[in-house]
């Protein structure tokens, strides 16, 4: 099973900015973290920075592990 790694870091935001992102995320049915990632990708795309496509979210129940 392939595991995608994510870079974790602390981000300090103005409370008003966080509230605005939270409202935007709720409207798009996303977490605040996912919304920040979407907004950053959109901003980079507008600047012409090319990224690899985001890996799709894993959905559903994890596969059962078979005992050998």
Which structural class do you get from the secondary structure elements? Answer: mainly alpha
Radius of gyration: 16 Å
Overall mean confidence score, pLDDT: 87
Order of helices and strands: HH
Q: Number of helical segments? A: 2
Proportion of β residues? under 5%
Runs in which pLDDT lies below 50 for 5 or more consecutive residues are none
**Straight-line N-to-C gap:** 16 Å
- Described by the principal axes of the CA atoms, the overall outline is extended
Oligomer: single chain
Largest sheet: none
Topology, number of strands: 0
Percent of residues in helical segments?
40-55%
Provide a descriptive summary of the structure in words.
This protein is mainly α. The protein has a domain at 15-46. It is 41% helix and 0% strand. It has 2 helices and no strands. The chain has helices spanning 15-27, 32-46. Helix 1 packs across helix 2 (32-46). The longest helix is centred in the middle third of the chain and has 15 residues, at 32-46. 0% of the residues are buried. The model has no long low-confidence stretch (mean pLDDT 87).
């Amino acid at each position: 099973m392939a595991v995608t790694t994510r870079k974790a870091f602390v981000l300090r935001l103005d409370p008003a900015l966080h509230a605005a992102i939270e409202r935007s995320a709720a409207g798009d049915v996303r977490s605040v973290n996912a919304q920040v990632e979407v907004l950053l990708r959109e901003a980079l795309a507008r600047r012409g920075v090319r990224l690899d496509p985001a890996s799709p979210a894993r959905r559903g129940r994890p596969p059962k592990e078979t005992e050998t």
